[in-house]
Amino acid sequence: METLLKTLAAAKHLEGKGVKRSPNTLAKLRTIGGGPPFMKFGEEVYYSPAALDVWVEERLSRPVSSTSELPNRAA
Hints:
By secondary structure, this protein is mostly helical. It contains 3 helices and 2 strands. Strands 1-2 form a two-stranded antiparallel sheet. The mean pLDDT is about 95.
């Protein structure tokens, strides 16, 4: 089993990947949804480093040279 990360360590892991998310943001995303998958052990919250990496990869766009190449999100 890989070493699991608490919220502060998860935020630092993401920052090491170039994605800045504060521990408070991760906590908010646990409530409203849309954040990385997490696990609980009693009252403690843990993140898998591999799951954090997948979460980032799933949200990155493909490389583009102009914003006009990105999908239009207005609906």
